């Protein structure tokens, strides 16, 4: 589990048709924050000793049981939004950047949890909907005005593609602004005024996602998808006659499958692709570990506590969401 500002949760999805056809048995149990894996008894012949057959317990900030919809303990999309999306929005409306990553093998339920399918909206559309409801409430006050900008990009083989403007071919440049930090040059940032508008953009972007089949899953996505919301609130203070501005960036990331290239039967070009994807994922792991060490005081900045943001496009672009926007890159002067 992570330190202070990092929450790690796990979710167990229902069996898919292949697992049902094979007569699979569920070896996962969840109790409160714990996830317990019990090796099946028919694994005994492969076990080297009783230790290999003993249940193993893992602790997370939360363990979501979504295995069986008829179970009274079933954790649905709304449960995840209440626990994760709402506090994220609370922070965003305070002006803090934040992000959510979905990590796991292809087929484990990342896109279901992030975007959702059909009417079963995932946390991304739920956050958008909730955001516009909150804005509606805030703008009851005539001195408050909010704007929302959205961008949606894909990182594939360490290259950036604009999902809201797929005609910009392949490779957008990642640059660094001296005061606001890393950004993608020429990336579409569209102003949206309602949930309906944002939903249309999401649908377009999802259609544009690169899908390359692997042996593991025909529709497996081999790219990282980064959905970004920028929320700006302007409040006119009638006493001081000054306009105050708060801005926050929310990054919602559906990561590429975490399966190892070798276990998916990939060869040649696909194997190289796997290695690149793993490089991004392993960098993300190292960045989060370094941040956890800094936040628990285990390491001090500089003294071996350098965060390796620059080692992958994903972590570099999310630098100000991962490390926070109040430390290294203060937001531009509110009044200039
Ligand atoms: P990934 O994006 O990790 O490759 P998906 O999100 O596409 O995986 O999920 C694989 C399949 O499992 C999909 O058909 C999806 O609808 C289903 N699924 C995943 N998670 C859940 C869940 N919590 N409840 C019900 N169905 C789920
Ligand atoms: Mg997916």
Description:
With 336 residues, the protein is an alpha+beta fold. 28% of the residues lie in helices and 25% in strands. The chain has eight helices and 15 strands. Strands 6, 9, 10, 13, 14 and 15 form a six-stranded mixed sheet that branches. β14 and β15 form a beta hairpin. α2 packs across α4 and α4 packs antiparallel against α5. The longest helix has 28 residues. The radius of gyration is 21 Å and the shape is globular. The two termini are 40 Å apart. The C terminus is likely disordered. The site of adenosine-5'-diphosphate has 13 residues, from α3.
Write the layout of secondary structure elements.
Elements: E1 9-12, H1 17-21, E2 28-31, E3 34-37, E4 56-59, E5 62-65, H2 77-93, E6 98-102, H3 110-114, E7 116-117, E8 120-121, H4 123-138, E9 144-156, E10 159-162, E11 174-177, E12 181-184, E13 190-192, H5 195-208, E14 224-237, E15 242-254, H6 268-295, H7 313-317, H8 319-322
Parallel strand pairs: 1-5, 6-15
Antiparallel strand pairs: 2-3, 3-4, 7-8, 9-10, 9-13, 9-14, 11-12, 14-15
The structure holds adenosine-5'-diphosphate (ADP) and magnesium ion.
Helix and strand pattern: EHEEEEHEHEEHEEEEEHEEHHH
The structural class is alpha+beta
Total helical elements: 8
Tell me about the biggest sheet? 6 strands, mixed
Cα-atom Rg, whole angstroms? 21 Å
**Ligands, ions, cofactors:** adenosine-5'-diphosphate, magnesium ion
Report the β-strand fraction as a percent range.
25-35%
Question: Helix content range of the residues, please?
Answer: 25-40%
Q: What sort of overall outline do the alpha carbons produce when their principal axes are compared?
A: globular
Mean pLDDT: 85
Number of strands: 15
**Unreliable runs:** 212-220, 327-336
Query: End-to-end span in angstroms?
Result: 40 Å
